[in-house]
Amino acid sequence: MSCYVIVSQLNGFALDVDGSNPNPGTRVIPWPKHSGINQQFYDDPSTGTIRTKLNSFCLDIENNQLVTRPFQQGDPNQQWERRGNAIVNRTNPNEVLDIAGSDVNQGARVSKYQFNGGKNQSWNFEFVGGQAPQGQPGGYPNIGASTYPAYPAYPSGQQATYPPSAQPQRQEFFIVSEMNGKVVDIKGANKDPGAHLVMWSKNPQINQKNQRWYLDGQGYIRSALNDMVFTAQSGHDVKTAPYSGDPHSLWKFDGNRVINQAGDALDICRSKRDDGAELCAYKPHGKENQRFRKELD
């Protein structure tokens, strides 16, 4: 996972999920940089969002304040991406994240505002190597509500100019069994959470997204049908689920196996070869019913 710390060019403070609070609606504020888990963020190109490493919530604007919230499909206040030194709204690229009133104090309000190129809208993205820290940073004062300075009168008529988006294009693929050539399929093209994964004969029609998958910004497998991941406890059937960070739902290719972060392998139950054979999570053993390949669309 490529995580980074967002550092303001105005004062050198880093964006920080206030007090490491995991609850929805927690403010994101400038704070002295320590690079803890509540100051680490990552891009999620599949949803067009920037998420916190703390709990995978998205950056969001609520009551003109930057906060974190679970992903909401179609919410323009969660659509943010890095372009150059700015954090730009994907639905309205003239709006960027802005430290209100160029306030240089820790705990200042961060909101969205029309692009003007000021230091309060400019950020450095410092990538963090290795594993995210396990401990939670502490020592935060209880910063209550306060009266924030008004925005300065920025010159009107300025046109924002940004470098091209750095977001990668999504490449879809089939997950093909080396046992029988069938592919992993969301049963019945069911878009709802809890849909079963089965093996089925390959359907090459481009609009049949229930057999197509892609890798998100962290390298985990997601469905092209609904952007969900799939999940299962060891020994249980595999089903679709929204992204939550649960290790049972974080699947990657490992050679010719598909392995989750809990250590289980994707397994065709009882090595059945017919259409509709169910998939389960099972301890890796390397037999043919656990061998898959990625086949580009």
Overview of the molecule:
- With 297 residues, the chain is an all-beta fold.
- It has no helices and 24 strands.
- The strands form 11 sheets. Strands 2-3-7-6 form a 4-stranded antiparallel beta sheet, with no helix packed on it. The protein has a two-stranded antiparallel ribbon with strand order 1-12. A two-stranded antiparallel ribbon has the order 4-5.
- β8 (80-83) and β9 form a beta hairpin.
- The radius of gyration is 22 Å and the shape is elongated.
- The protein starts with a strand and ends with a strand.
Radius of gyration: 22 Å
Q: Uncertain regions: pLDDT < 50 for 5+ in a row?
A: 130-168
Distance between the termini: 25 Å
Helix content: under 10%
Total count of strands: 24
User: Which percent range describes the beta-strand content?
Assistant: 35-45%
- Gross geometry: elongated
Strand order, largest beta sheet: 2-3-7-6
Order of helices and strands: EEEEEEEEEEEEEEEEEEEEEEEE
- How would you sum up the major sheet? 4 strands, antiparallel
What would you call the structural class?
mainly beta
Keywords, separated by commas or semicolons:
297 residues; mainly beta; four-stranded antiparallel sheet; two-stranded antiparallel sheet; 24 strands; 0% helix
List the helices and strands and how they pair.
Layout: E1 3-8, E2 14-17, E3 26-31, E4 41-44, E5 49-52, E6 58-62, E7 65-69, E8 80-83, E9 86-89, E10 95-99, E11 110-114, E12 123-128, E13 173-177, E14 183-186, E15 197-200, E16 213-215, E17 221-223, E18 229-231, E19 239-241, E20 251-254, E21 257-260, E22 265-268, E23 279-282, E24 292-296
Antiparallel strand pairs: 1-12, 2-3, 3-7, 4-5, 6-7, 8-9, 10-11, 13-24, 14-15, 16-17, 18-19, 20-21, 22-23
